[in-house]
Amino acid sequence: MKGVRHYPGFTAIALGCLLVLYAPMIVVGIYSFNGSTSLTTWGGFSLRWYADVFTGEEAERFGMATWNSLTIAFMAATVSTVIATAAAVAMVRGGRFRGKAGTFALINLPLMVPEIVIAVATLIFFSTIGLETGYLTVLIAHVTFCIPFAYLPISARLQGIEGTYEQAARDLYASRWQAFSLILLPLMAPGIVSGYLLAFIISLDDFIITNFVKGAGMETLPTAIFGSVKQGLKPNIMAISTMLLVVSILFVTLSYLINRRGQKTLVQQGDRA
Amino acid sequence: MAARRPGERSLLVPLLLPTWAMIGVFMVLPVGVMALYSFLTREFRGGVDWTFSLSAYDQFFFDRGLFGDEAPRLQWAYISIFWRSIWQAVIATVLCLLVGFPTAWFIATRPARSRGVWLFLITVPYWVNLLIRTVSLRFLLRDTGPLNQGLMSLGLVDAPLPVVNTNLAVQLGLFYSYLPFMVLPIYAAVERYNFALSEAAADLYASRWTTLREIVLPLVKPGIVAGCLLVFVPSLGAFLAPDLLGGAKTFMIGSLIDEQIKGSQGNWPFGAAVAVILMTLVLIALVAYARSVTRERSA
Amino acid sequence: MKRLLGAVALSALASAAQAQEELKVYIFFEYIPQELVEKFEAETGIDVTVDTFDSNEAMLAALKAGRLGEYDVAVPGDYMVEILRNQGLADTFTPEELPNFGNIDPQWIDVPFDPGRTSSIPYQWGLTAFAVNRDVYQGPIDSLSIIFDPPEELSGRINVLDSQGEVLALASMYLGIPQCTQDRDQLRALNDMLQEARQHWASFGSDTSKEVLVSGDAAAGMIYNGFATKARDEGANIEYAFPKEGSVIWMDNVVLLRDAPNRDNALRFMNFLLDPENAGAVTSYAAYQAGVLGAEEFTDPAIRDSPENNPPESVNLGDFVMACDETTQATYDAIWTNLKQ
Questions:
Q1: A128-154, pLDDT tens digit by residue?
Q2: Contact B125 A21 (CB under 8 A)
Q3: Which helix (H) or strand (E) holds C210?
Q4: Strand C110-111 vs strand C114-115: parallel, antiparallel, or unpaired?
Q5: Within an 8 Å CB–CB cutoff, is residue B125 touching chain A?
Q6: CB-nearest partner of A27 from B106, B128, B139
Q7: What is the number of structural domains in chain C?
Q8: Where, by residue number, does the polypeptide cross the bilayer (chain C) (predicted)?
Q9: Comparing B24 with B250, which gets the higher pLDDT?
């Protein structure tokens, strides 16, 4: 039984794959605790660069950028999750209808078009309609490209819920709204939470589109990091990166665990993408 | 699917309207405006004149010499930028496939319980900021970085391996950025593979590798094609890896567009035209993919 | 003086009527110290709004897209001042309108982009040439050949600014041909020389030009002099060069914009910036040089006395990057694309 499944070398490659994926992040994580000002010499374990993030000369800039990133991610994830939930209900429970394939393509469009194309198109569009680039334009762009990321887990979850629940509720004279809010919504909850968290992370991490539509002066965390990194990779950047890394991993783990409760792993949604 | 009651259909439009509106107005329409922009006349020193012109595409495809007065020949400058970007993306895709397939196979042959954990481990890096991952990779690979210092202190090499600012660094960066995209779809395909087929082949004295080539690969091909596409498309327009790892020595599609839109040249119609050409290439790849999937299914 | 009194009286009246005097400034981000803005507000009672841009071209695009008439002054680079003037986006003033006009360093009055200073005043200026890591190369560095025809030790380890204007201007100086030349043989020579030179280059980067020298990724690199000071501060053993062929001089300037809604306030602000103490405060913050007589006294000594900011007396400072006409610019664009294709 094991024989046909086993290929020599595949195990080594899989382990090597993990090593390649994690090595750079681990190295940066380790060096963020370096007590030395120099990047390459080890000066003992220290938390000074973490303190520097909050008190150093760039603290104000990064504080502002973090605030922008978090508020934008919060709003973009919220709005896109609501939109995606409505769309998922229509797409999964709506049966066959005209324009379904088109709508499906539309939802997935942000995943298909290269980011740089979306970035240029969005910038040209805002400039043409005379909307000044800044916080608002970043928010609009984020809501738009977050929709498919919120949609995928939600629709995957919904596909796993049989229609009989709502039907039973309706047979018992529940109104349409009651059947949705009392029966379907709680069942969908893990998918919705998962979609929300993924949208949040996607918004928090976006660089290319944000960099095009943000205008001068306004920064999000990734654009602020990019600006700093170009001036030199300093230990405080490694500390910020490590913190962002931990936040990302926390969110994804949370999303994974919540979703697994409903027997749907992240990955099964991933392969529908 | 549950039988629908009359009237349920009326909800479709209000439920889908926000999606149509958001993506329609802020993605489809902008792409349309961008396409329109690529046919406008560039004003000297930024800005556009709203008169129709093919000059952006003319600049892309025709070379009229250094002084613009020679007979037009095919323009190699931009084609070679595209060609180089495509080539980098192809190499990154092949690297991803060579590593991603065995990894996906390995995961799919684990006991069901540990598969989830493995997949989780493969997915996590994707959710970590791409910028941070690229910067980390540069830090690891640079001449004075931990990898080279480690190799030198072990006496394996005398001088630092020159990796940063080379094409190899860009390919490694792309490989590293998009590897999970390759593993996931292949895993999904391998997971559905019926291993009884391999056993049957083994019973008929097929070697492991013959089985892989003749039986497994054709069956998991849709997963492989999907994975290749998911790596190839974002690699093509990648911006961070060439800029941070490749030293920006030569234009890639991403940096060429960036320079036209945000740089000193301020040539928006040309930047828009390059973006339109890139999008056209991607659409062709997607349509080819969709066709191959339909053919597989009908076969 | 009478005029000024008149202006002050007028603006006092206006402020009584309008309740709040305003000024809108358009400037590179992180380029003016907040304390200085507050000082101006306290001295004059004018409420200042500072908007920022991240490139000269972005500023031009915004003004052309209808933002003209919203801002009173903008602070663009040298060649952009010429473009603003040529496109009729700048207003003019007379020296009498600025009591501190006489504080402008005479060498920056008759500048090619605004001869006689009728629309702009100096804000900060500096030089762009290159710096060399002295651990790697100990030979003479008084020529641009270090970048364009480098010695063996430096070949393959050079970073070049990712900026068409500066690279082509320095390359022209190296070849001894005028900028924006229309002579085809000279332009071909420029193209050929750069094609040869690029083989010696490791990377292109402007924002990264300091980092590559500090980290050792590059052993020599084109760099702005103020940036070289910072690289040295961060521990790089580099020496900034003043090549004999000349450097690129750059200067950011405060420009009085056309249709400025608060023209008088704009002039008061420009006059304020020409005060040596205030010019010194800007310099201490931005770390370049002021172009205002007497500002040195009020400048942070570490910035004022750095070797990068004090070229030898006899050296050829070089030239500003010129704004070429459309045909020549098209050729320049083609040469740049060839370089990076």
A1: 888 888 899 999 999 999 999 899 889
A2: yes
A3: helix C209-215
A4: antiparallel
A5: yes
A6: B139
A7: 2
A8: none
A9: B24
